[in-house]
Specification:
The structure is a single chain. The chain contains 13 helices and 20 strands. About 35% of the residues lie in helices and about 30% in strands. The strands form 4 sheets. An 8-stranded mixed sheet has the order 6-5-14-15-16-13-17-20. Strands 8-2-1-12-19-18 form a 6-stranded mixed sheet. The structure holds arabino-flavin-adenine dinucleotide and P-hydroxybenzoic acid. The site of P-hydroxybenzoic acid (PHB) has 10 residues, from strand 15.
C-alpha cells in the first residue's frame, strides 16, 4: 500500500472510479479509498439512466464496450395521468436519446478496468479526515483493519457521496431542500410491460416503471417520508404499482432488492478549496425524478480530470481555479429540472386540491405544447457537454 500518491480519491462510486480511470489514461497516479467492500459497492442498486454525455465519456475513455452492447437505447418516455398516456419523443424534439444501463454495471466496468490497469482501489478503508488542503501537501487520514494511517497527496478529490466527510472538510455553504416524501424502489424479476420508461402521476402518488433488461424491471413508488419497508409488504407494493401505473398486466416477480430513499436537493458552493475538490453527490444531490445524479457525477469528474491533467502537463492552474464555477451552472440547471419534475409528478401529501388541478393542467400543457415538451426533453436528455 502506497503512503503517498498524486491524487487521493475518497469514494469508489461512479465519480471516484471514473476520475481515477481518466487520470490513469493521462499517466497521473491516484489511490481510491472506499469504506465498503467491493461486493457491496458492485451490488448497490441505484441510478439507471445515462445521458449521451455520459455514454460518450464511457465510450471515449475505453470503458463503454459492455454498455454499448447491453445498454437499452430509448428515444422517449411516457407520461401517464388521469387515465391518459402521452409520449415525449426525445429524438424528434432534441435529436438525442438516453441509455438505460444500471449504475452498478457502470461501477463494475470501472472497477474491472482500474484493476486490470493496476489501479489502487483500497476497499474497506474509511477516510476519517482530510488535512492540509490549504497548503501544497494535503493528506487523507484513514482507518484500515482498525489501524490508523495517512496517505500524502498533491490533490484530494472528495467523491464520497451524500454521507461522506469531504463536504464538511471543505467548510463551504450548502443550499438545501427536503421533500415530504421518499421513493420506495424495487428491482424485480418481471418483464417490463413497456419498452420505454413510464412516469405516472396519480392521486395515490407518483410511480415510475423503469427497467434493466427485457427480464428485469426497476420500479418506484412515492411513499411518505417516514415510511419503512416493513409497512410495505410485497402484495401492497405490486397493487400500488398496478394502480398508479394503470398497468393491470404488471406481473409480480421475485424482488431481488428493495429500499426506501429520501428525496433531497442540495448544492455546496464552492465545490473546491485549496487542494480539495468535490465531485458528484459529495457536492450536490438531486431527487432521482430527473435521472440526473449519476450523470452529474460523471460530468464533474470529466472537468476535474481535464483540470488536473492541465496542471500536471503544464502547471497551468486556470482550469483548476475555475472548476467549481464551470460545474455549478450545469449543476443548478439539473437541480432546477429535478425539483421541477418532482413537483410536477408527486402528489402533495397534504392532498391540496388546488395543487392537484395545477399539476394536471401543467401535465396537459407539457404533453400538448411543442415548446413545453421540448423544455422537458432537452433537460432530461442533458445539454451538449454535460
Ligand atoms: P456515491 O454515493 O455513488 O459513491 C460514494 C462512495 O463513497 C460510496 O461508495 C461510499 O461508500 C464511499 N464513501 C463515503 N464516505 C467514505 C469515507 N469516509 N471513506 C471512504 N469511502 C467513503 N440517481 C439516479 O439518477 N437515479 C436513481 O434511481 C437513484 N437512486 C439512488 C438511490 C440511493 C439509495 C442513493 C443513495 C442515490 C441514488 N441516486 C440515484 C443517486 C446516485 O445515483 C448518485 O447520484 C450517484 O451514486 C453519485 O455517484 P458518486 O458521487 O460517485 O457517489
Ligand atoms: C432507474 O432506472 O433507476 C431510474 C430511471 C429514471 C429515474 C430514476 C431512476 O428518474
Amino acid at each position: 500500500m502506497s503512503d503517498e500518491t498524486q491524487v487521493g480519491i475518497i469514494g469508489a462510486g461512479p465519480a471516484g472510479l471514473m476520475l481515477s480511470h481518466l487520470l490513469h489514461r493521462q499517466g497521473i497516479a491516484s489511490v481510491v479509498l472506499e469504506r465498503r467492500s467491493r461486493d457491496y459497492v458492485e451490488r448497490r442498486v441505484r441510478a439507471g439512466v445515462l445521458e449521451q454525455g455520459s455514454t460518450d465519456l464511457l465510450a471515449s475513455s475505453g470503458v463503454g464496450e459492455r454498455m454499448t452492447r447491453e445498454g437499452l437505447v430509448h428515444d422517449g418516455i411516457k407520461l401517464r395521468f388521469a387515465g391518459e398516456e402521452h409520449r415525449i419523443d426525445f429524438r424528434r424534439l432534441t435529436g438525442r436519446g438516453i441509455t438505460v444501463y444500471g449504475q452498478q454495471e457502470v461501477v463494475k466496468d470501472l472497477i474491472n478496468q482500474r484493476l486490470a490497469d493496476g489501479g489502487e482501489i483500497w476497499f474497506e478503508v474509511e477516510a476519517t479526515a482530510v488535512e492540509g488542503i490549504e497548503d501544497h501537501e494535503p493528506s487523507i487520514a484513514y482507518h484500515r483493519n482498525g489501524e490508523a494511517a495517512t496517505l500524502d497527496c498533491e490533490f484530494v478529490a472528495g467523491c464520497d457521496g451524500s454521507h461522506g466527510i469531504a463536504r464538511a472538510a471543505l467548510g463551504a455553504e450548502s443550499f438545501e431542500r427536503s421533500y415530504p416524501f421518499s421513493w420506495l424502489g424495487i428491482l424485480a424479476k418481471t418483464p417490463p410491460t413497456s419498452d420505454e420508461l413510464i412516469y405516472a402521476y396519480h392521486e395515490r402518488g407518483f410511480a415510475l416503471h423503469s427497467m434493466r433488461s427485457p427480464e428485469i424491471s426497476r420500479l418506484y413508488l412515492q411513499v411518505d417520508a417516514g415510511d419503512s419497508m416493513d409497512q410495505w409488504p410485497e402484495a401492497r407494493i405490486w397493487e400500488e404499482l398496478r394502480l398508479r401505473l394503470a398497468e393491470r398486466n404488471l406481473e409480480p416477480g421475485e424482488i431481488m432488492e428493495d429500499g426506501i430513499t429520501p428525496m433531497r436537493s442540495l448544492v455546496t458552493e464552492p465545490m473546491q478549496r485549496g487542494r480539495l475538490f468535490l465531485a458528484g453527490d459529495a457536492a450536490h444531490i438531486v431527487p432521482a425524478t430527473g435521472a440526473k445524479g449519476m450523470n452529474l457525477a460523471l460530468a464533474d469528474v470529466k472537468l476535474l480530470g481535464e483540470a488536473l491533467t492541465a496542471w500536471y502537463r503544464s502547471t497551468s492552474a486556470d482550469l483548476l481555479e475555475t472548476y467549481s464555477d464551470r460545474c455549478l451552472q450545469r449543476v443548478w440547471r439539473a437541480e432546477h429540472f429535478s425539483a421541477w419534475m418532482t413537483a410536477l409528478l408527486h402528489r402533495d401529501p397534504a392532498g391540496d386540491p388546488f395543487e392537484h388541478k395545477l399539476q394536471l393542467s401543467y401535465l396537459r400543457y407539457v404533453t400538448t405544447s411543442h415548446a413545453a415538451a421540448t423544455t422537458l426533453a432537452e433537460n432530461y436528455v442533458g445539454f451538449d457537454g454535460g
